[in-house]
Request: fold
Amino acid sequence: MTDLEAAARMIARAISAEAGLNQDAAGVTVDSLTEAVMGVTAGLCAIATAVSKLADAVADVATAVGEVADAVDHAEEKRA
Reply:
């Protein structure tokens, strides 16, 4: 077996279920590098969803602040 063949087999074992059971940073058991990458992808999707919800909340607050500012301006115009 050549060095190249041995290296290819090592990579294949790391990607496949032959790598054995391991735990990722979240404590979830994964069977392969592929499965671990899928877990990272799921985590990144959850982060993206949370950031999107945060952006929506900030937009809602900005709208509310704008409405309050308009109401204050309108009240000041009535007084003048």
